[in-house]
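It is worth pausing here to work through a concrete case rather than discussing structure prediction in the abstract. The textbook approach is simple: state the sequence, then state the predicted structure, then interpret. We follow exactly that order.
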Amino acid sequence: MPYGWLGRHPQYHADLSTKHDSGIELGAPLPVTDPLAIAWEAVLDASAEADRATEALDDALSWATSHQARFYGRLPGEAPRQMDPMGGWLGAWPSNDHWHHIAFLNVELKNFLDRQGYDIEAVLRTWDDRGWLLKNKGGRHRTKKLTVGIRKERCVVVSRHACDAVAGEHDDE
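Step two, the predicted structure:
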C-alpha cells in the first residue's frame, strides 16, 4: 500500500472510502484526483511544519547562546544595568544551571525567525500547542511580561523542558 500512514490510521481510510462510495451512489462525478493522495499531502505538510517548529527552536537557542551577553541575567554576577547593552536586549535568561526558562523579547524573536525564513505564526502556534511556552495565568496570549534590564517587557518564554527536549534530539549528531 503506498499510503503507509493508513496502516496506522485505518479509521481515516474507512471514512474516506465510505464517503467516496456514498458520493458515487448519489451520482457525484468521480474525483479527478485521488482523495487519499490529497489526504497524504495534508499529513506531510502538517508534519513538515511541526519539524520546522523544532528546527526554529533549535536555531533560536543557538542564536541565544551566541548572544548571551544580550540576555538580561545571563552573565554571572550581573547587577541591573541602567543602560542597555550595545544593540539592546534580546531577552532574559538566568545564569545559573537551574534556569527554568529562556525569555525572548517578542519583537526580537519574531525578527530572528523572519530572517531565518520561518513562518512566525505557525512556529509560535506549534510551540504553544506543544506546551513549550510559559504564559500568564489565563494563557490567552503567547507572551508573558518579565523583567528585562530595568523594565517589564512582553516576552515569548520557552520552558527549560522544551529547550532540553530539542537539544536532546540533536545529541546523536
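Step three, interpretation. Strands lie at 71-72, 91-92, 101-105, 133-134, 144-148, 151-159. The first helix runs from residue 5 to 8.
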